[in-house]
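[09:14] KT: can someone run the structure on this one? pasting the chain below
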Amino acid sequence: MPTTTSPADLYRHSLRLLLDKDIAAWVGLWTEDGVMEFPFGPPGWPGRLEGRKAIASYMRDYPDHIDLHDFPDLRIHETTDPGTIVVEMRGVGRLVETGGDFDMTYIAVVTVRDGHFASYRDYWNPLAVAEPGVDFTGSGAR
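[09:31] RB: done, structure tokens below
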């Protein structure tokens, strides 16, 4: 995306890529030194991913775990920093391994630099849909 894209437009575009299961293009929205954090991730799951390569590795198999259908209830809030937004949304779909419903509420604090994601703090609750033996994050953790 062009560097003139707003953080909100970049975020909306990233959601479309996730729905299209275009993980390579989604990863391409990141800076080389981007950082993705999961402050509420349980023990044994990654809490911080540093660099586009680590983020790509984490997300590589995401569509094999979650079949996303929609992101309803999307609300994007601007902050006093023009490069940072706060996002509230739901992700809905299906857990591929079990066929069970996936319905997760997210809050994310996202910082964009030069038209790319530089920081993404993802406040989600993996225990809300965790089933024994199901890896729905794409992380390889179970």
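[09:33] KT: thanks! Confidence is low (pLDDT under 50) at residues 132-142.
[09:34] RB: yep, looked fine to me
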